[in-house]
Amino acid sequence: MAHDIKRVVLAYSGGLDTSVILKWLQTTYGCEVVTFTADLGQGEELEPARKKAELLGIKPEHIFIEDVREEFVSEYVFPMFRANALYEGLYLLGTSIARPLISKKQIEIARKVGADAVAHGATGKGNDQVRFELSYYALEPEIKVIAPWREWDLTSRTKLLEFAESHQIPIARDKRGEAPFSVDANLLHSSSEGKVLENPAEEAPEYVYQRTISPEAAPDKATYITVGFEKGDAVSVDGLSLSPAALLTRLNELGKENGIGRLDLVENRFVGMKSRGVYETPGGTILLQAHRGIESITLDRGAAHLKDDLMPRYAELVYYGFWFSPEREMLQALIDKSQEFVTGEVRLKLYKGNVEVVGRSSPYSLYNQDLVTFEEGAVAYDHRDAAGFIKLNALRLRTLANRTRRIGV
After folding, report:
1. Which residues are involved in binding ATP (predicted)?
2. Residue 96 labelled as part of a binding site
């Protein structure tokens, strides 16, 4: 089988694992390796990945590094936030939503360079292997997929280091020791899992948190901000128009300063096990509250409740890796239709880990003060109409009660 692969596009970070994978692909499959490194806003310098790939024998024209931050936020994060998506009611899906974009770019590069395979560094126990591969196959049905963690015998960090040393793969001194936990990061969030976090009964150490200060250390004075929306997407902060990536970056800064966006979660992985993760989504946490705030005055009750009914299904599709599925696209069309009049401004109060909506306004607001006021003078609502409304809604309940009385139950 190995000789069938001639050229493979590898999702490459430049770290120990993917550098070992790169060399392993060369030695095991005897194939040419093309690397793709995405700048998703993870906060790391990416040029070292280029230099390391060159050092490992990759041709300069086969090293792809791309800044995809704007595309990530505008085409993946924002559509997901239009749905108010939360997996299992809490998780803002920061890792999940990045995988389809990486996969799409790998497939595009594979077509460009004539590769017959793609590869990723996800383990055989996690969700990411599913997300990558479902996306690959949805975009290129006949592509070959190599998942080294399901094939090789490098099952420990010691073996990885031994392989690296035997193949002259440079290892930074601070990477030789056992990492206390693993981290995945992008512009939306950072996630930490494993090692010191594996016992869900133990509180996560403070050093785990990288994107937020603790709520206790946040300022004693509240921060007020205003987020502007157009058709369901955030477009400004405090009156300043920003690109999608710049806007999320600004919300991240505000969230970090106020200790917002921490989540310690035990979740159900798609592959069947429970796992504990510590997530930090400062800007996303603010954005979710702001979006729900503007929807509260612009969405009709029926539309809003239908969205809430569908949201868990949408979130599950994203978490499981079905971004490119017809059902996710169908739900997206419905959600996007609901956002036609979700335009306006939301004022928020940020204080010691909390986000509160304290004001909202829209040129398309459905809020009518004349209807809801307790003062006299409302002409659009006749209190006497409520009697018939209540009796009609109570009809089936009265019928059931009469039956119960009749049969003596």
Report:
1. 11-19, 38, 121
2. yes
| Domain residue ranges of the chain, discontinuous segments joined by + | 2-68+97-178, 183-299+341-361, 369-407
DSSP secondary structure, 52-91, as one string: HHHHTT--GGGEEEEE-HHHHIIIIIHHHHHTT--BTTTB
Q: Which two structure tokens, joined as six digits, stand for 403?
A: 């039956």
pLDDT of 3 > 60? The answer is no
Q: What is the CATH number of domain 183-299+341-361?
A: 3.90.1260.10
pLDDT given for residue 369 in this prediction: 79
Q: Is 385 annotated as a binding residue?
A: no
| pLDDT at residue 355 greater than cutoff 60 | yes
CATH code assigned to 2-68+97-178: 3.40.50.620
Q: Check the annotation: does 174 bind a ligand.
A: no
- Catalytic positions: 17, 99, 128, 182
pLDDT tens digits, 7-23? 999 999 998 899 999 99
